[in-house]
Design brief:
- By secondary structure, the chain is α+β, with helices and mostly antiparallel strands.
- It contains 15 helices and 28 strands.
- It folds into four domains: about 100 residues, PAS domain (Beta-Lactamase); about 210 residues, GAF domain (Beta-Lactamase); about 220 residues, 4-Layer Sandwich (Phosphatase 2c, domain 1), CATH 3.60.40.10; about 120 residues, Histidine kinase-like ATPase, C-terminal domain (Heat Shock Protein 90, 2-Layer Sandwich), CATH 3.30.565.10.
- The strands form five sheets. The protein has a seven-stranded antiparallel β-sheet, with helices on both faces.
- The protein is elongated and about 145 Å long.
Length: about 725
């Protein structure tokens, strides 16, 4: 029988020494409890915990309760009963338990593991349990800081609204990092302007953008303009642009507006633009700030610009801010500052685009005796773009007492859309002056948009922000108050609504063509004979943002309300269809059609003979006398004589003469020739060529429009005293 290896006792002794060294020198706290859950042994790290005796308990029967505290009395964790319950479970089950999170003293977080320990008698009974306690506070804090940064990036990074960025910033840091926070943004930033760091604090106006918690006082002052007094911590941070950690801050009395005394804030209510709500409210610090034992000040700076200030307070939680909290607050503020600066730039772009758009739209609808017009124009919010839309409208007076109604929509937003809209509106106004039919006008406009789409991109533009190709829709309608006929054409635009005098309404589906820019040039023309008092409504798709078919039915019902002025109908339609500001521009242009009284129009057919000139002059004298316009008799006779003489000389067929009295006096001479007259500047040696020059001098406007049967040369003269 082989005996034990002679080195076995020495190995067992060495193992004991090694285990003892590892136990005593372990950086984590190790505590051994017996089967009655009394402390047997604790290493050096464990003896640093409150409630753990400096000397290990005796290992013989003389051990007392005083020398061997129970598990519930050991101050390793805040709740001793929780530790005792864990150890009892391990003794009862014989299974280890790992990584149970428990609270330590103060705000420390511990991870506790428990392992069963068997005896040496070989019967398998448990004689002790080992508790392994690790302080994971810093790890938890690091993880919490990382989670806070992730949350800040997710909630703030993509925002392009200054107020939303400030609100989300406040929501992220309270209560995760601070008990209260105040976010102030430079007043100029709200307007999209830049605030330079070199600007003096005394001249830097801030506006309260967000607070949290939001209900710490009855009035939180959001929206009010504030200035921090000289030598306050806030003004110092705004001066050198350095974050600050202040322990046990002093709380002087707030200064009275403009006195320059030291205090928290100097409230200065201002009706200027800024965050919604609370303008002019008393600006005070939160209750948490009055009792704060530490605070952090972080200036908001980005790309060399001072944008605002973030102030964080701790009052409820006992642990003050530390350097790690300052670094975390600075990182969150830097992220917010970039978003604020992006929002500021977007605001500037939106402001510029909106100003350009407003300058390119009519300031007001012109008066026209052929219609009673009403307009509702609601600019869109365009969330996430900060741009202005490309919707436009126009009312254009044409020759022969006619009037053109135009509504269009350019796709896209921003400066490019607004500029394209201005180009299309100018082109329509020019072509309307040529008296082109609606379908022909849209054909030319389609060619213009196609050329715009083929223009090369701006080489100096940001390649990451490629502008979309311009596309547009348009409806162009012409109302003739003499014939009571509406001629219209559409290019990919929502169909107009017609409300007749009996209250019935219909959608004009005819004459619908492709959107502008398709290059097809296939546009039809629809003619509607409508009685006086009928209503014609043109609109953009922004007026029907949701459920277009249902919204269109509601629009028809609203426009059919009897006895209402046209402007009231437009306002009522907007209230009904757009309870809140839409995301896209919305335009509603409505016109109640009027007829020109028969006694204001005279029309005759004349033979192609010079003798007809005398009869025409007699007609002019009689009619102008009846209209009370005898002072216009001589210039009108000269105009009619020159135009008729040209028609007799160059036109082969019958000649027509028409006089129209509206807001101006219109003379029209029609013939069957398609040759356009040209204004010449005759020299002193020329025997002719002065007729149209004389007409242009006597009339305020003159022009030519064509029809399948020939042409019409027209002039307009102002009525004296009008």
């Amino acid at each position: 029988m082989a005996g034990a290896h002679p080195s076995a006792p020495r190995d067992a002794q060495l193992d004991a020494l090694l285990l003892g060294a590892l136990f005593d020198r372990a950086r984590s706290a190790l505590l051994v409890f017996d089967s009655e859950l009394r402390l047997l042994r604790a290493n050096a790290s464990a003896r640093l915990l409150p409630g753990v005796p400096e000397e290990p308990a005796a290992e013989d029967g003389d051990r007392t309760e005083r020398s061997a505290p129970a598990a519930r009395d050991v101050g390793a964790v805040a709740d001793g009963a929780e530790l005792q319950q864990l150890l009892r479970h391990v003794l009862a089950s014989g299974d280890p338990v790992r990584g149970v999170r428990m609270a330590g003293d103060g705000d420390r977080v511990l991870s506790v593991s428990a392992y069963p320990m068997g005896g040496d008698d070989g019967d398998g009974g448990l004689v002790a349990v080992l508790a392994h306690v690790r302080d994971i506070t810093e790890r938890r804090r690091a993880r919490s800081r990382l989670e806070l940064l992730y949350a800040a990036e997710a909630r703030i990074g993509a925002l392009l609204d200054v107020g939303r960025v400030a609100q989300e910033l406040a929501a992220v840091v309270v209560p995760a990092l601070a008990d209260a926070v105040v976010v102030d943004i430079a007043d100029s930033v709200w307007r999209g302007e830049q605030s330079a760091p070199a600007q003096g604090v005394e001249q830097l106006a801030l506006r309260r953008a967000a607070v949290a918690p939001s209900a710490y006082r009855e009035e939180d002052g959001v929206g009010a303009q504030v200035r921090y007094p000289y030598a306050s911590p806030q003004s110092s941070a705004l001066t050198d642009l350095r974050p600050r950690l202040i322990q046990h801050p002093a709380h002087p009395e707030p200064a009275v507006g403009g006195s320059g005394d030291r205090g928290h804030l100097v409230p200065e209510p201002d009706p200027a633009s800024g965050p919604p709500g609370g303008q002019g409210a008393p600006v005070t610090l939160p209750d948490a700030a009055d009792e704060a034992h530490s605070l952090i000040l972080v200036p908001l700076t980005a790309r060399g610009a001072l944008l605002g200030l973030v102030t964080l307070y701790r009052s409820e939680r006992p642990t003050p801010f530390d350097d790690a909290d300052l670094r975390l607050a600075t990182e969150v503020a830097e992220l917010a500052a970039v978003s604020v600066d992006n929002a500021r730039r977007q605001t500037r772009t939106h402001t510029t685009a909106s100003a350009l758009q407003r300058s390119l739209l009519p300031a007001h609808l012109p008066e026209n005796s052929a219609i009673e017009a009403g307009l509702a124009y609601v600019p869109g919010t365009f969330p996430g773009t900060g741009g202005a839309g490309g919707d436009w409208f126009d009312v254009i007076g044409l020759s022969g007492a006619r009037v053109a109604l135009v509504v269009g929509d350019v796709t896209g937003t921003g400066l490019h859309a607004a500029a394209t809209m201005g180009r299309l509106r100018s082109a329509i106004d020019t072509m309307a002056g040529l008296d082109l039919p609606p379908d022909e006008l849209l054909t030319h406009l389609d060619g213009l948009v196609s050329r715009l789409m083929q223009e090369p991109p701006d080489p100096f533009a940001d390649p990451q922000r490629n502008r979309p190709a311009p596309a547009a829709t348009c409806v162009y309608a012409v109302h003739d108050p003499i014939a009571m006929r509406v001629t219209l054409a559409l290019a990919g635009h929502p169909p107009p609504v017609v409300v007749r005098t009996d209250g019935s309404s219909e959608i004009v589906e005819a004459a619908t063509g492709p959107a502008l820019g398709s290059g097809s040039g296939t546009f039809g023309c629809a003619e509607l004979d409508l009685p006086e008092g009928s209503l014609l409504a043109l609109y953009t798709n922004g007026l029907l943002p949701e459920r277009p078919e249902e919204s269109l039915a509601r629009l028809r019902r609203t426009l059919a309300l009897p006895g209402r002025p046209v402007q009231d109908l437009c306002d009522a339609a907007v209230r009904d269809l757009l309870p809140s500001r839409p995301s896209d521009d919305a335009v509603l242009l409505a016109a109640r059609l009027r007829a020109l009284p028969p006694d204001r129009v005279v029309s005759v057919r004349l033979p192609v003979d010079h003798s007809a000139l005398s009869d025409a002059r007699d007609l002019v004298r009689r009619r102008l006398t009846d209209w009370g316009l005898r002072e216009l008799t001589l210039p009108t006779e000269l105009i009619v004589s020159e135009l008729l003489a040209n028609a007799v000389r160059h036109a082969p067929g019958p000649i027509g003469l028409k006089l129209i009295l509206q807001s101006v006096l219109t003379c029209e001479v029609s013939d069957t020739s398609h040759v356009s007259p040209h204004l010449r500047h005759a020299t002193s040696y020329d025997e002719g060529g002065r007729g149209l020059f004389l007409v242009a001098q006597l009339a305020n406007r003159w022009g030519v429009r064509y029809s399948p049967r020939g042409k019409v040369v027209w002039t307009e003269q102002e009525i004296p005293g009008s």
